[in-house]
Amino acid sequence: MIDIHMLTLPGDRKDWKEQAIANIPGWATLHVINAKEGPIGPQRLKAFRKGKHKYVSCIDPDDWVEPFTFQLILEALEQEQYEGACCRELVHDAIRGGTYLCPFKHQTYVLRREFVEARADLFKYDIEERHIINVPEVKWLPFIGHHWRRYNSPRRQRKIATLEAERRAADPYRHMRGLYGYR
């Protein structure tokens, strides 16, 4: 009925990964895939193409879902003619502190395989899933089924350092703006 993939990196915490896998229903097909550092989009598309089921989804090894999540999403897709559906998520934020409801569509989502293939060109880039699922064809369901651990992972730290290096290269004097009359 559904192919779910998990992209893993060598530094992923084993206990979090085990928790994520434990909450995948037994009737779903899980594909655990060793990912490479770099853009996530092309790797996500390659993973979505594994399997043969009508629906596809993914879960990160540092997140977890409630046991009923995939069942409720699939039931909604079978009843209504949406291309996909996603649930609400709670963010467990170790960076800012606290737990709060995520304000936008993020995860867990289930998409029809044809919907993903029709948008395959979007996966060429290091995009976030919300750019694919924030469309009217993907229904936002009114229940919390996903838990996102937001923390300062090594991948996040490298991404921030790369973005900061790109900003400095584009404007090496930006730190001086406003000083000594420099504009």
Features:
6 helices; 8-stranded mixed β-sheet; single chain; 31% helix; Spore Coat Polysaccharide Biosynthesis Protein SpsA, Chain A; 183 residues; 2 domains; alpha/beta
Write a short abstract of this structure.
Helix content is 31%, strand content 27%. With 183 residues, the protein is of the alpha/beta class.
What does this structure look like?
The chain is α/β, with parallel strands linked by helices and 183 residues long. Helix content is 31%, strand content 27%. The chain has two domains: 150 residues, Alpha-Beta Complex (Spore Coat Polysaccharide Biosynthesis Protein SpsA, Chain A), CATH 3.90.550; 32 residues. It contains six helices and eight strands. Strands 1, 2, 3, 4, 5, 6, 7 and 8 form an eight-stranded mixed β-sheet that branches. A hairpin with a 5-residue loop joins strand 5 and strand 6. The radius of gyration is 18 Å and the shape is globular. The termini are far apart. The model has no long low-confidence stretch (mean pLDDT 81).
CATH architecture classification of the largest domain: Alpha-Beta Complex
Classify the oligomer: single chain
What low-confidence regions span 5 or more consecutive residues with pLDDT below 50? none
Tell me the count of domains. 2
Task: Work out the strand percent.
Answer: 25-35%
Largest sheet descriptor: 8 strands, mixed
Distance between the termini: 59 Å
CATH top level class name of the largest domain: Alpha Beta
Radius of gyration: 18 Å
Give helix and strand order, one letter per element, not per position.
EHEHEEHEEEHHEH
Number of strands: 8
Number of helices: 6
